[in-house]
Amino acid sequence: MKVAYAGVDGVVRLVQFGREWWMPSGVLVEQDGGLVTGAAAVRRAVQRPEGFVADPMGRLSADTVDAGGVVIGTADLVAALLRVALAAAAQAAGSPAAVVRVVSSGSWGPRRRGALRSALQRAGAGDAELIAAPVAVGWHLLAGGVDLPEQSVVAVCDLGAGFSARVLSRAGDGFEVLASVEEPLGGGDTMDAAVAAWLSPPTPGDAVTLPAAAAEVLATARLAKEALSSAPTVLVPGAVGQVVFGIPQLRQAVAGVLDRAVAATGRAIEAADVGREDLALVVCVGGGARLPIVADAFGDAVGVRPVTVPQPEAAAVLGAVQQPVPVQAAAVVPSGRDAAGAVVAAAASVALFAQFVTGTHRYGPPNSIDGGWLLAHWGGLCLAAVLAVVAAAFGASWLHVARYAALEDERLQRRLYGVALAGAAVLGVGICVGYAIFAVGYFDVPAGPLLRWSVLAAAPVSAAVAVAGLLVIARPGLVERSWPSWFRFPVSVVVLVGAGAYLIGYDMSGSPLALRPLQWWLYRFLPEEPDVFSAIGRVGAVCLGVAVTLLVARRAWIRVVTAVPLALLTAVVLAPRSTGLIAATVGVVIAGWWLWRVLAALGSAALRVPRSQRTPLSGSAAGDPAARASWQHTPDVSSAGVAAEGGR
């Protein structure tokens, strides 16, 4: 029995039992009815062999088992094994598993599956999922980076203790088993017997049956066969002394066994009603898949050379963990942060624009040819336009969740959010144009400077928001979390930008008069400067510097180290001719934040499935230790750890 789990880092690992990556699947029944599992059961079986049940899961078709005079339910024996597997996975991961899956043979009927369900109930995992071994192998292929588009056909050849051939089809969000053929005499047990017969040929007086080989010769044959997975030849004891056993000898010894396996694969392909030219992939799993002669035998007969995945004996149990966990749609309510962000950003934008209008001085005669000019806080108009776009983005997120959270089609829901973001970008530009038109009419001046400091200043942010919206429309499933939370702009930055620009605008224009008490209060602690900007304007510059720090730095210690010098630098360089440049820089940084979130989404998708043996999860179980656990049954774990599905 093999057990795998996915930890908090999203990496799938096998559970180690002592020095081995598998646990003996036998159970010893004591005379008093007590149960001993694992390696302890194998050791105890030497003293009580009649009470040892080597393969409880393979005997699920019977309700009870007579173990040395003690009649016990088969489900109780299997439950004892499952309890050990659950405990081992929880100990390895650091917490109990949230999702449990059990790999079963693809040929099991309702009787055995029902008995396994009963055993899971007794083991405390009644809500566990049963997954067929070939389907689990399909998920293992996807997690390893294999491209299997819709309707792709895959043949899975399992060379365990026996042999099974299954044909899968990629269907929707999963796999469909098209055909399944079992061949008990085409697997590892029969290969071991064939190698044993080759090493010690029977004399004419002996029975000519492969399973009649002596136990010690059978064990030697098994070791010799497995050694050829990593060496071209081995030296083994034979009937007439030491014998050199290599790849040619192995091919000669097991030719008949491989012929049965290949024939079973052909029957499975015919039963699936697909042509051999339609096979996208033939994959070999199980302990026997490592043998160097397997690929040639199947490639010549099937016409498609098979591939072997890393750790083929554990492919099914790993794939069971790597299968994505369906995320159940929860009741989604509009975020209060989005609503607060929209209100705060809109209020700050309107306040800055009102300060720009009331604090601006117009020079030049009205209705003249020259047109007049304005002495204004252009940086305030710039940030008013930028915050208008940010407010529109906040409002789009809030309204989208409020309107479309109940949609069952998640991809459509996400695409509608992308449309909302793109619409917010257009709306933000429209507000900026409205600001410019109002100011042109109010001051009776040419529109060029006003459009430049409103529409053009907000263009980078608007373009970045539009790019984010187009990304969501084109690739709605790029991130696993919700898009509104992914693109949620920090409300604290909105507050700092709005307050900073407002304080600088007051220092330049004296509007509004309501801030005069604050100015007098600051004079009590900071000296009044003869320069244009006093303490209140410098405090506003500090706010802008801290806002930029919050956007460009993510870690707390980097923010602390960076905020002080950047805030002081902004306060020092503040001058009448630099306010517009500082405001434009803040606008560019805000646009950069949106573009960085776009790049982060693309990067997270690219790194989600690394091609390594420690394959991260492709679904959504990361975040909880031991988010998923699964195990796979091995009917004869004493045979050098050859893994196969139980109950041939």
UniProtKB/TrEMBL annotation:
<protein>
    <submittedName>
        <fullName>Hsp70 family protein</fullName>
    </submittedName>
</protein>
<feature type="transmembrane region" description="Helical">
    <location>
        <begin position="532"/>
        <end position="552"/>
    </location>
</feature>
<feature type="transmembrane region" description="Helical">
    <location>
        <begin position="450"/>
        <end position="474"/>
    </location>
</feature>
<feature type="transmembrane region" description="Helical">
    <location>
        <begin position="339"/>
        <end position="358"/>
    </location>
</feature>
<keyword id="KW-0472">Membrane</keyword>
<keyword id="KW-0547">Nucleotide-binding</keyword>
<keyword id="KW-0812">Transmembrane</keyword>
<keyword id="KW-0067">ATP-binding</keyword>
<feature type="transmembrane region" description="Helical">
    <location>
        <begin position="581"/>
        <end position="607"/>
    </location>
</feature>
<feature type="transmembrane region" description="Helical">
    <location>
        <begin position="557"/>
        <end position="575"/>
    </location>
</feature>
<feature type="transmembrane region" description="Helical">
    <location>
        <begin position="378"/>
        <end position="404"/>
    </location>
</feature>
<feature type="transmembrane region" description="Helical">
    <location>
        <begin position="486"/>
        <end position="505"/>
    </location>
</feature>
<keyword id="KW-0143">Chaperone</keyword>
<keyword id="KW-1133">Transmembrane helix</keyword>
<dbReference type="InterPro" id="IPR013126">
    <property type="entry name" value="Hsp_70_fam"/>
</dbReference>
<feature type="transmembrane region" description="Helical">
    <location>
        <begin position="416"/>
        <end position="438"/>
    </location>
</feature>
<dbReference type="InterPro" id="IPR043129">
    <property type="entry name" value="ATPase_NBD"/>
</dbReference>
<dbReference type="Pfam" id="PF00012">
    <property type="entry name" value="HSP70"/>
</dbReference>
<feature type="region of interest" description="Disordered">
    <location>
        <begin position="614"/>
        <end position="648"/>
    </location>
</feature>
